[in-house]
Amino acid sequence: MGNKPVMLIVDDVEINRVVLTQFFQEEYNILEAENGKDALEIIEGQAVSIVLVDMVMPVMDGFQLLGILKTNDQYAGIPVVVMTANNDGDSEARAMEMGAADFITKPYNPTIVRCRIRNVMAREEIEWRRVEQVAQNRQLLEMHQRIELDSLTGIYNREAFYRRAGDMLQGHANTSYSIVYLDISCFKVINDLFRMETGNLILKTAAFYFSMFVGEKGICARIEADHFVLCVPADKLDMDKLIAGVDSTIQSLGISHHIHFYAGVYQVDNAFLPVDQMCDRAHMALNRIKGQYMTRYAFYDNGMRDQMIEEQMIVRNMEYALNEGQFGIVLQPMYNLNSKKIVGAEALVRWNHPKQQISPGKFIPIFESNGFIVRLDRYVWEQACITLRQQIDRGLDVVPVSVNVSRLNFYNSDFMDYLLSLVKKYDIEPRLLKLEITESAYMDNPHQLIAMVRAFRGHGFPVLMDDFGSGFSSLNMLKDLPVDVLKIDMAFVREVGRSSRAGAIMESIVDLGGRLNMEVVVEGVETQEQVDFLESIGCHDIQGYYFAKPLDVESFMGLVERSQKGE
Ligand code: C2E
Ligand code: CA
Ligand code: CA
């Protein structure tokens, strides 16, 4: 009995109820009511699958009951079959208009009554299935979206991008597409400096911009952290516009930190390459320009693959190399043209790899992009301190050593503590350890750099501005940044004898340095002609192959010893 559907028979005439009960008692649990009001109470109290209702009743008639049920969201779904007297076509029509499922006429013909009720229930079942199907479809769609879409930004995620971009490329064989891989420079720093929500806002805004940019003809996705990819028809892609657009959109958020997107582009020349490999290629192109401030995007070419393999080798080996002592320093003397004496030296890192020579020009940018540079720099500083201690212990007139300080160090809060601990450990005066910084640190975060430079000098560490003149904010920066020494970028000295403009610029820098109480050093000096020119403009401190190439520590010590004894 328990699992049968419930049929409610509403009729004031008992005999009618008895007859109908006989028809249906095997298939249904039968409930009875004498009028609409009682029926309503039953319906409110329990689940009813179908109602058979007489139209003419005292207290509340069938029309009233039908009206109440069909206008109530909760009960409107219950099928109501009305029972009318023979030849009462008006009532039948009215009841059907009000939402009755069907009618049966008295006196009852058992076969017709059974058939009609069965049909009503069958229709009901079909309808119920349809509703369920719609709900199921909606659920499926939601699930699909949840699987396909990035929950933070609402654009596609990595897997969906691979699938959909693949379909797009296959489906439009006559269109040529580009894959663009975008990354925010130093996004980790943004997360460190601001709250998480700020980082999220930046990502959401970028995603919004990218989806506008690609429009209907392309697709975009966030494939991890702050990495986005686009797949767009090549003729729709204007990279300058894309970069400028996303930059200004993000700038409009008013976050007090420069946020720059960098991009690599792979122009799809083989539509059957898996999309993840296309993305890798675009990523490779991006990696090539990492750390370069002026270049915001690059296009993939096949030479990059070889470079990528080499880079992977470097990354795989760096940790081991540091632990095994494969990194060492060389020292390049700085001379004073007047005194002909060594007045300083720059410590330059070397990777003494057992199998091959890898130049710092190759591995430094990689370490700058993966953060390893911070550890390597500290190692180099310590080596520099060791050579200073050696000079002291040998009783020499100590030649100060300058070390390179990659901009990433400025994001480390214990940077200063580390330097102080080093000079303490080797018992060295801070004035002997000079710090070479580059403009890029200033561009990242001017306020922070200014504060740090003041603090270094406060502790007695001299600060050099390396590669001065190579960036575009050099002069602007000079006004705020109290450094001790300007080291003029090699590019200028190379132009000596070739370009009078470069000469004029150098002369002005030397003059400016004098006025601002900053020393000026020129690096990359290779020829007598360059030396003569530098003397003529009053620049006396030089570093370059003309006097000495970078030397291993022992040779450097010997040179210092000889030069101090000899004169
Ligand atoms: P840099 O700091 O501008 O260093 C000067 C570079 O110029 C050195 O190259 C040096 O060997 C080279 N050089 C010196 N005199 C001459 C010359 O007369 N002619 C020419 N053509 N080159 C000259 P190196 O050692 O290959 O270093 C390249 C760059 O790698 C450095 O440029 C610096 O940016 C970076 N680097 C080197 N060591 C370190 C380090 O310990 N830490 C960090 N963060 N960067 C380093
Ligand atoms: Ca340097
Ligand atoms: Ca330099």
Structure description:
49% of the residues lie in helices and 19% in strands. It has 567 residues and is an alpha/beta fold. The longest helix has 39 residues, at 110-148. The strands form 3 sheets. The chain has an 8-stranded mixed barrel with strand order 11-12-13-14-15-16-17-18, surrounded by 4 helices. It has 3 domains: 6-131, 3-Layer(aba) Sandwich (Rossmann fold); 158-300, 2-Layer Sandwich (Alpha-Beta Plaits), CATH 3.30.70.270; 309-564, TIM Barrel. It is rod-shaped, with a radius of gyration of 41 Å. Helix 1 (14-24) links the parallel strand 1 (6-10) and strand 2. It has 21 helices and 19 strands. Helix 2 (36-45) runs parallel beside helix 3 (62-70). The mean pLDDT is 91. The structure holds ligand C2E and calcium ion (2 copies). One calcium ion binds next to strand 15.
Features of this protein?
567 residues, Alpha-Beta Plaits, binds ligand C2E, alpha/beta, rod-shaped, binds calcium ion, TIM Barrel, 5-stranded parallel sheet, 21 helices, 3 domains
In CATH, what is the class of the largest domain?
Answer: Alpha Beta
Could you name the CATH homologous superfamily of the largest domain? Answer: EAL domain
Percentage of residues in helical conformation: 40-55%
Mean pLDDT across all amino acids? 91
The name of the CATH topology of the largest domain is TIM Barrel
Strand order of the largest sheet: 11-12-13-14-15-16-17-18
- Which parts are unreliable, with pLDDT below 50 for 5 consecutive residues or more? none
CATH-derived architecture of the largest domain: Alpha-Beta Barrel
Radius of gyration: 41 Å
Going by helix content, strand content and strand pairing, the class is: alpha/beta
